[in-house]
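ENTRY TYPE: paired fold submission
RECORD: A
CONTENT: sequence, then structure tokens
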Amino acid sequence: MNFWNEYATKHPKAAKWIREGGLFVIVSNVITVFKYLILQFLPYAFKGLGDKAFGWPGIPVNLFGVDFKWNIIGYDTAQGGLAYFAAYMVAMVIGECVNFPIQRSFVFRSKGNIWYQAMWYFIAFCVITCIVNSINCAWVAVAGRFVPDFVYNIGTTVLNGGVSMIIFFFVNKIIFPEGEAKK
């Protein structure tokens, strides 16, 4: 511990990035596992939505011999349609509702305006979700053809967690300044 204290004294900005980055990765990975567990079992709760396609823009694609409709939001019926999308979104929203206060208070030690931060976090979540879902749509279509759901759900949560983690780290550095809010 003495080494770290000396390092932090000599290089406070680098030490802050290392501490925040390390804690961010740990918390994000725990939340990713939590999302995976939700996503693995929650689609069964939405079976009542039937076998309905739900997605936009629904562009027909053939990738590795698999035909599917590529969507920025939602999934084709072969990938679970509305039921899978509902489960996916519930898992992501619950995960982010847990993640936001931990990242804000514990990792980044921010005491800024919570409503302002929550608004920007929500906007970032929506943009990141569209980016990740557009990639995930192709992943679920192709992987779902070749591996069981528990395997492609691992890929889904790792993809979502990995891409989100990289983008969210820099978003959080901006929206969660350390310390008290500026007056």
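RECORD: B
CONTENT: sequence, then structure tokens
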Amino acid sequence: MKLTLRVWRQRDADAEGAMSTYEVDGISSDMSFLEMLDTLNEELILKGEDPVAFDHDCREGICGACSLVINGDAHGPERTTTCQLHMRSFRDGDTIDVEPWRASAFPVIKDLVVDRSAFDRIIQAGGYITAPTGAAPEAHATPVPKPDADSAFEHAECIGCGACVAACPNGAAMLFTSAKINHLNVLPQGAPERETRVLDMVAQMDEEGFGGCTLAGECATACPKGIPLFSITGMNKEWLRATRKAAER
């Protein structure tokens, strides 16, 4: 396959970026999208040019570090992570636009790499269960109803890639935050911090500068792990419940 790539290049966070055009040839349809970018970078290095910076880690679709906007779609034309997108999804002679996530809360570090530490700070605000130190409790000591366990597992699938933010016309992080809140709030182990968790995590989400949710639904459509849109509804109910209880105190 021979392809034309239009790639976002930006030297650092303070520099102005622009799209640069590259031609790549000899691309196998069995290559992953990241392997194709590796091929481009090998050619650039041989020419003495600066390779395209892009983030990645596991290349197995479980960490989300590889997140890119491809032809205007978060992670590209397939509902998967960028590292699991293969070149068979494109045709010989295609022109492919490759850009970083576009959100004020995800500033560009270099080229296609963005700073997603805002997600880390949302987790730090309450996305955990406080437990006493010592030996782990027996696994069956706290029974969890099957529907609750299924819901927790469904929300726990969120890998924090940020596709929901990139796809949202408002740059909202509601789907990510709701997945992390609902995952823990549905479990009995998360009950003691149920109210503070949702209040603190939502407050941190707002502080990070993410946009407001208008239920456009693009977040759930782009999510490679299929986090459902009703997760946001569940978080809103938790937030209203916690706000009401805080006002009654």
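NOTES ON RECORD B: Helices lie at 33-46, 117-124, 146-156, 163-167, 174-185, 194-207, 218-222, 230-248. The beta strands are 3-9, 18-24, 69-70, 73-74, 95-99, 108-110, 113-114.
STATUS: closed
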